[in-house]
Amino acid sequence: MSYIPPHKRHTKGSPSPEPTPAPESVLPALRKSLNFKRKENIRLEIRYAHGAVRKWFPVGLTHFSSLVNLQPLSIHQKSNENPLRLVLMQGCNGGTNDEPWRLVAKNVMEDLLLSFQHVKSVMEESNMEEESKPSLVARFGRILFHGISAKSQESLNSNLLKETTLRQMRKSFYTSVPLSYMEYIRNLAVEKLDLQYVEEKELYYVKLSDNMRADSTVTCKCTVVKDQEKIQLHKIELNQVRNMVADMSCPGKSLDLRLMLNTKKIMTGLSDEEINEIKSLIGSAVLDSEVKGGLRWPFGEDSSGSRYAVTGVWHTTAKSYGNSSIRLKLRHADRYDFRSSTGEVAQEVNLKMSGILSQLQEETIDENLVLKMLEDNLKLIWDHCLDDGSSS
């Protein structure tokens, strides 16, 4: 029998939710009644800094319990579980906060400042072989509640939902958005936000395991050499470390919101031998639009001796729009994970808050200015980025 590359063997996959941090506490009785399960496939490259801030809260309603319930969300996934999303009850259109973005800004401001102080201290202690780059980004998607049986869902909805109950449930953030939303952002929201087209990029990300860094994933960011039908190495990074994650369910809106401060490390001090091993792996990759992730390796060429091995690939095309303080990115991502033999195709939108980040990096931080900028960015998001335009 002829050799079948790993990409050709896998079964058809689909976007998998991005794990949200574990809840602060879980009452044993509640866990039992809601049928909690711990079988999710947590991506190894998702890491949190020591002492990272992780929180969830609902946004936009003055009378939370009487206006919302949990409803199934139809998404394609491997498990038979039916995830739920927090939504505004049918027929309810009152009880909303007039300025929810101000409440969000106040809720996360202290966490943001403290988390960035930690980022600064880590950057100052970084060795010469690594360059740390922080980013503050808003992601748009849907917060899913897991491990809840239909009977438990009915029981929860028949009683007044409490934030404390929802806080104890297992959650994930599902980043793939509908195509209709992508079109809305591209055709309408960009004009309303008065953003300028910046660039379009096609990139391949090759994920490598490194037996010298067992707790990290090496990511090789690669560009395409069209005339040679090859990819070439552009940058080598370690997987992102999350310093603050604030997830917000937004009942009444099409999408939910994640605000995240994270740091990635760019590898600058690798030896010639290490770089050559990585370049050899990259050079062996074959562009193939018929496989998930868009890359495959000839038999035996997806590892370099005993040091590096390919664990996954991403193929992304992204358009970005921006001004001096924000950058909006619309990305199509085709991913494949060698370890789990699963793939996903996702449409994703995020907004980088570069203006706020610049202020945080000042020697003396003007907290009032940071708060005002955060409120302005969140108002922009609330007005334009959490709906698909169907009611506009």
Automatic annotation (TrEMBL):
Domain DUF7903, first and last residues per copy: 45-384
Residue ranges of the region described as Disordered: 1-25
Biased composition (Basic residues): 1-12
Alphabetical list of PANTHER family matching this protein: DNA-DIRECTED RNA POLYMERASE SUBUNIT ALPHA, PTHR35481:SF4
Listed name of the protein: DUF7903 domain-containing protein
Organism: Solanum lycopersicum
Name of the encoding gene: LOC101268176
